[in-house]
Amino acid sequence: MHLFVLALLLATAGPTTANPLFTDPPATAAPRARMEVLHIPSGGVVINGVAYLAAGPGPHPTIVICHGWPGNEKNLDLAQALRRAGWNAITFNYRGSWGSPGDFRFAQNPEDARAVLAYLRQADVAKALGIDTGRIVLAGHSMGGWVTAMVAEEDPALAGTILISAANMAMLGAVPSDKLETRAASNSEALAGTSPAIQAAELKAKASSLDARPRAAGLARQPLLVLTSDDGLKPATDPLVAAARAAGGQVTEAHEATDHSWSDRRLALAQRIYDWLQALPAKR
Q1: Which of 11, 19, 128, 225 is most enclosed, with most CB atoms within 10 A?
Q2: Contact 118, 157 (CB under 8 A)
Q3: How many domains does the chain have?
Q4: Is residue 164 within 8 Å of residue 262, measured between CB atoms?
Q5: What is this structure's pTM?
Q6: Over the stretch 113-124, which tens digit does the pLDDT of each residue have?
Q7: Nearest alpha-carbon partner for 25 in 90, 83, 78
Q8: Is residue 214 part of a domain?
């Protein structure tokens, strides 16, 4: 009897909808999903980028993902998942990081992100990559979250902004120099034209200009998603959230009990971001 009931339930159950984040696009899609290497002018050099381009004719909504310091976690699984779900995903390396030419400097990182956005918005580039320039979202993890905040505060054309376990690099200026150099030393292997002493000195000397808080009201220009974890960095984003809300911004917050890299919540991270992206209007 139990087997009969089970068979009946299976026979009458409706079709399940596959999660697009984890479902490969059909091989018959035209054009098929593909990857393109990007060469992006910034600060007198050409930095490295990669475009993960979604299947289908497009133009597609596009997310630009900024990595941290130094960027060991580049969120490439997130880029791949969002591509499967119909989004183009762009990753890049700041000057002096991970093979991009130039000397690594914190103050240059937002400049590089602005250069990436300007490059993608060029008509010929947007056409070649199938980018819907009215639906570009800027996202960043750790230091990349700080980069994202610094850029988004001044860019009303963005369709949305995402901060993932974001830092505020200005807050490191209060750390004693010896401890700051020790921290920088552990983050310097993939960085060129710099040293722990140079990085520590810049964070201290430029703490005021590196601070995302004074202009945080600009984050109200577009919908903002703030994702925090158990890494102790929530105080870095709380003032940004408060300022954006006070300025009338549309802010969504969520927390996961995981580490700074979201090591055991990668699927949850992708799902949270995708669900939020689905509700975004285009920016024209």
Answers
A1: 225
A2: no
A3: 1
A4: yes
A5: 0.93
A6: 999 999 999 999
A7: 83
A8: yes
